[in-house]
Amino acid sequence: MAKGLRSARRSSWKFSHALVMFFIVGIMSLGLLSMLRSDSQALDAQVTALQERLTACEKECRDLEREVAAMMSPKAVHVYAAQDLGMTQVHVAGAIRVDVAVQRAGMPTAALANAVRGYQN
Predict the structure, then answer these.
(1) For 88-97, how does the pLDDT look when each residue is reduced to its tens digit (9 = 90+)?
(2) Residues 6+ apart with CB under 8 A from 96
(3) Beta carbons within 10 angstroms of residue 97's beta carbon
(4) DSSP assignment of 31-83, as one string?
(5) Cβ(111)–Cβ(94) under 8 Å?
């Protein structure tokens, strides 16, 4: 009978230790799961912020592409040159006449015919 009582105590002691270990492992597992959940939420927030930033950059890129396309037209280039750079269009009244007979330093020169003389052929 004493042997049966000892074996009953041993088995109940083993069971209680196993139960305590089970609770400790369970609590540790729940703690780890809660840490993983908080890390997951932080990563989700970062992903959301990156997606919003990507969307904003894509919108800015599309706007810049539209602006570039608008600036490629000749009229836009002319307006930019006139207003921002202060360039003006110069109209020369006259014609350029190439005199082969007149040479300076061995090279033929071009002379501007006056508007007074008119155009010469």
Answers:
(1) 776 656 666 6
(2) 110, 111, 112, 113
(3) 13
(4) HHHHHHHHHHHHHHHHHHHHHHHHHHHHHHHHHHHHHHHHHTSHHHHHHHHHH
(5) no
